[in-house]
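Cysteine-rich small domain-containing protein: structure tokens wanted.
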Amino acid sequence: MSENYKFNQNQKCEYFPCHKGVEQEKFNCLFCYCPLYLLKDECGGDFKINHGIKDCSGCTKPHDENSYEYIMGHMKVVIERGSDF
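Answer:
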């Protein structure tokens, strides 16, 4: 069974690759905007707080080879928290 839905790459994007630390051929653009951002400090990513704002520019979690499994493994919490807004 094909699992191509787990990987998408847009080499024509003017920002590609937008984060350093992932081999270019393995860079996954599927989660260009990370759905785990709303989990704040519980996302598990490598983020910093700059002037009170979460800065994910140093994080590769949504773009590495295991990004699909990692993100989808946290989506239940994202959905539960999203219903609180």
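Residues 61 and 67 are 6 Å apart (CA to CA). The mean pLDDT is 93.

Cheers.
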